[in-house]
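Q: Hi! First time doing this. I have a protein sequence and I read that you can turn it into a structure. Is that right? Here it is:
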Amino acid sequence: MAKKLPKIVLLGRPNVGKSTLFNRLIKSNRAITHDRPGITRDRMEGTVRIGGEARFIIVDTGGVTLGADDTASEGPEGLRGFEREILAQAEAALSDATAVALVVDGRDGLLPLDEYLASRARRSNLPLLCIVNKVDGEEHEARLSAEFHSLGMPLIAVSAAHGLHIPALFDQMLALLPELATTPSRGEDEDGEAITVVTEKVRPLRLAFLGRPNAGKSSLLNALVGEGRMIVSDIAGTTRDSVDVTTSINGREYIFVDTAGVRRRTKITDSVEKYSVNSAIKSTTKADITLLVLNCEEGLGVQDKRLIDLLNTHKTPFLILLNKRDLLMQTELTALRKDLEASLAFCGNIPVLPVSAKTGAGLKKILPMAARIHEECHMRVPTGRLNRAMREVLSRHEPPMVKGVRPKFFYMTQAESEPPTFVFFVSDATRVSESYMRYLERGLRKLFAIKYAPMRLHLRSSHKKK
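A: Yes, that's right. Below is the predicted 3D structure, encoded as structure tokens:
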């Protein structure tokens, strides 16, 4: 049986360097880091690997401003308005944690906020570690970490930015964790001898949300997961990092990726938003399926059309979710769908699902549709069937003559899947029109039952018939 990895939560006040440390530990720049406090709001999880082996999960949380009364107090500019939500996210992380690492700023010294958080961490009854960050040199270690010994926790001084004492930090973190043994599934053969049964694990389906600010991406994720996993607000731009949320639904593992709202680049002046948008776009390239969320109330905007064109150009498997359908009359929803269908004329295979995160309408259709697109993307067609299909499509409608010459199609192959990519070998590729390529795609989709997945068709000039 595969073991469930233990979780260590990074807890600390704003701007102590938790996200920088998180990136250092997972060896990837997943969390947005900035000198401005309050950048991280939602909690983020990453796998820490040592010697190539996954050892534990590290959880990054937003900067918590905990008062003496154990409630959220007003945070620095940029964080205000989200203090309670960030505290709730940190509490949720602690409820599922194996250990807690309290991160403090060695340059700032011990502050009341650190002491309040240390008291909260002790009440969790979990193994504790104090990480004194921003100690940029061993010569400063004793001076910058001395007063933090009063917190009564094991302590280590590090520099997340420069990598000081990170190997020692790995050792300290591993010491916090219980020894977890894995027991292989066993059975018996026909002679009664014990055998090890190896079961292939199905890889989780990775689904990334994409859309304009305030389209309801975080609300939809929370509705699908069944908990308030992401902070939701009417304020556009609440989500900044691209956050992975792993869950199991009806016996299948999913990784939902919530992303920041994507505005037109000409409107982006803030450096943090620039990082957020780049991270959102990058997330679609790593996802199995992208869920493009449109706000029914705002209709189909120019930026929505740009995102559709971007996904279609890169042949990214995606489906469109018309969120907040509960805010529209049926006639308005019908008109919106017609407008969308007209805009999708160049990629008519994209499924459109009206949904509502608030009422739950249409949500049950999302995961089956995503699974079907993913299955179509991995379709492999035998060579014999490929060429029978080509002959059938050509017999229905021959390619038109160009300058008195009709191009000859010799054979075709499937170059790859993800998405299905087919190569036609023809006498002269320059004589095959775009309209005929669209006809070929429609014919192949029908014959191979590839209804929703993106498809690539390539032409290659050849004078040899296979």
